[in-house]
Amino acid sequence: MRFPDSLFGRLVIVIALVIVANQVALYLFVRNTLATARAQRMGELFAGQIQLVREIHGRAPTPSDPRANTLRLVSGAVLGTPPSAGSDLAQAERTLQARLGPHASLRLARNDRLWLEWRGKHPFSLSLPAYPWRSVKLLFLYWKFITVALLAFIGALLALRQINRPLSCLVAAMEERGPHGLPMAAPLAGPREIRRLVQHYNRMLADLRVLLDERDLVLVGISHDLRTPLTRLRLGCEFLPDSARDSREELISDIQALDAILDQFIAFSRRGQGEDWVLCQLNDIVNEAVQQFSKPALALCVIGDCAPLPEILIQPLGMRRLLDNLIENARRYAPGEIAVRTRLASGMIELIVEDRGPGIPESLHPQLGRPFAGISQGVSGTGLGIAIVWNIARMHDGEVLFEDRPDGGLRVVVRFPTDHDRREQET
Predict the structure, then answer these.
(1) 343 and 283 belong to one structural domain
(2) Which contacts (CB < 8 Å, 24+ apart) does range 340-346 have?
(3) SS3 at position 413
(4) CATH number at residue 18
(5) Three-class DSSP category at 75
(6) Are residues 81 and 123 in the same domain?
(7) What number of H helices and E strands is found in the chain?
(8) Per-residue pLDDT, 134
(9) 186-233 residue pLDDT tens
């Protein structure tokens, strides 16, 4: 049997086991300390009853109604079964025989009546009132099981209420996104151990926010400080003589590349901050990007194939940046035809960009979402293009998948959920 996966189920089992173990220990304690003494007292009582009947036997009338639920006195022995070994009645019978000898015994009839037998001079049998020994034991066990289960359920419910409520607040804070895409701080509530956990969690979030703010400040400062000399270099290139035209074009191209790198760093650091969420159609963004990259000056063939999609809550500029990075990567590493498609599959919106390049080994797919992964593979670029795609997809509760096309090339699939209720609440 598998252990329950939920905390409530585990608490119910643990509390039930504790209660059962406590009942078993209590039963053994009572049996070892009190059952023997009770059985001896029962034996003494039965011996006294037999002695009393021996004195009055022959003078007391025998009840005429055999169904009477009272004392019954019958001359001669009555057949019955002896009590089971180890039971309280067996111990009482040993005490009875120690007091009166082997002529005295106890017997249980089929109707659960208890008979005190005397097989000495003037034998007789004395029947005590019927008592449902077996049914009472079964009924006792039945209600005991129900009581244990009910107590375990109530105990688990109360314990879980003290644990689950602050943990639910912590999980809700983790699922909600704030600045830098980090989770929100959680309120301090619950037992001391959970409050300590929440304190460390909030402190970790605060440290991460400080580090990310410092990183953004450094990147913005670098961008600001570098753009000024880059602008001067660009102006200086314009004043170069015509004899150095080739060198001037190369310098301008390098300056533009540096400027694009700075833009990539800034885009990676912002992670969608400062942009509002808008309910719009993803196909409009795809068609706009396809038209821009299909200009004759770029000598690029971009094909758009958009299926009907519902409107979703997204950041338009961030989504456009995601699509531009995917098309730009395909153009850089796989010149030729690029296909951009959208479709609705399994309740998810899929944005697909396919190229006909050499593809990427499957062993390198997990590394593509890391910053500078492209540089580590020895290719040109900042290595932030796919990392920015990953960040924007995560901001939209999406995921990025990489697949090799059967006829050659790479297929990048970005999947987004259509449910935007949580985003509407945040906005």
Answers:
(1) yes
(2) 340/286, 340/289, 340/290, 340/302, 340/303, 340/304, 340/305, 341/304, 341/305, 341/306, 341/307, 342/282, 342/283, 342/286, 342/305, 342/306, 342/307, 342/309, 343/307, 344/307, 344/308, 344/309, 344/310, 344/418
(3) strand
(4) 3.30.450.300
(5) strand
(6) yes
(7) 11, 11
(8) 47
(9) 888 877 888 888 999 999 999 988 887 887 777 777 777 777 788 888
